[in-house]
Write a structure and sequence with these properties.
This protein has three domains: 2-84, Orthogonal Bundle (Helix Hairpins), CATH 1.10.287.1080; 129-207, Helix Hairpins; 211-256. It has 257 residues and is mainly α. The chain starts with a helix and ends with a helix. It contains twelve helices and no strands. The chain is globular.
Amino acid sequence: MREIDELLAIMKRLRDPDGGCPWDLEQDFHTIAPHTIEEAYEVADAIERNDMPGLQDELGDLLFQVVFHARLAEESRAFGFADVVAGLSGKMVRRHPHVFAGASVTDAKAQTIAWEAQKAAERRAAAVGVLDTVPRALPALRRAAKLGRRAASVGFDWPDITGVRAKVTEELGELDEEIQAGDQPAVEHELGDLLFAIVNLGRHLGIDPETALQAANNRFKRRFGHLEESLAQAGRVPDDADLEELEQLWQAAKKAT
């Protein structure tokens, strides 16, 4: 494809020791990785805002990250962009036997189960631990959810929501005990356990915790903005109000938004 070839040529030129870009020449996998993560978030943000021109632009930026990493790998003779594409194509065919190999699935849920089974078979063949391929760089909530799902796929899970709900209560009690004891490292430890249990509760409820928290963030921002507007009408800011008034304005904002 001409456009892809042109992009690869641009990347090669940027990394050319003789006249390339000084910034691009200084980069390696580790320094580029944060930019890759940031670009993925910007793609998600454009989708959230339903900004199609923005999505086109952000997808281009994300693609450039793939090209950059592939160029770095090619320079070290590890692999190239063509190898990335070939590996991806093979993986997609292998994990969609109902499309390419005559297998059948009844619906999207069945396909998800088959997909995870295929991935599990690949991990077993490579002698990789069940949780070893869950990326450490994932946001903590997403990583917790994926760790929980992966463990559940081999039977390590509560049989129903009653057990996980009891676990949330147990972890909250342990957090309260450490708060009372004033042991800050233990408080952090128990808060982490509580958050992990809540993530698993979301999984049993069929709710993505990252999505739920993002929605809560948006509600909080919207309601706090309403609170600020209410005060601004009287020429005031939140610092001018006491906690009781702020709570009253907050409750009004909840009803209004």
